[in-house]
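Risk register update: the risk of archive-format incompatibility is retired. Evidence:
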Amino acid sequence: MKFLTKLAEYFAKGLQIIGVFAPTIERVLPGPAAAVVQVVSKDLTEMAQVILDAEQVGVALALKGPDKLKAAVPGIADIVLQSALLANHKIQDPALFNQGCTGIASGLADVINSLHTDGIEVTNKQA
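Archived output:
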C-alpha cells in the first residue's frame, strides 16, 4: 500500500497522525546556512501537508490520481509564490509556472509514496 493511501486510510478511521512530516533531524550549520535549511525544510513540510490534504480529499470524494494532483497544485503554487525563491520576481509565463508547480506536486507525491508505512505514528483522536 502506498504511503499517502495508508495515511488517508488512518484519517478516514478517525485516527490522528503524529509528526509524519515534522523535522526529525536538526543540523547545526554556521551562519546564514542554518536559516536556509530551516526555510527549505519549512517549505517542503508545508508542501507535503498540501499533498496529504489533497489525498484526504481524494479519498473522501473517491478521486483518481490526476484529480488529486489538480487539487494539490493551487496549494503548492501558493507556497512557491511565498517562497524566498520568488522574492522580487514576477511570473512572466503563468502556464509554465503552473506546469512547474504541477511537476513539484507530482514529484513530491512520488517521494512521499516511496516511504515505508512503518514510519507512520498513529493515535486514536477519541482517546
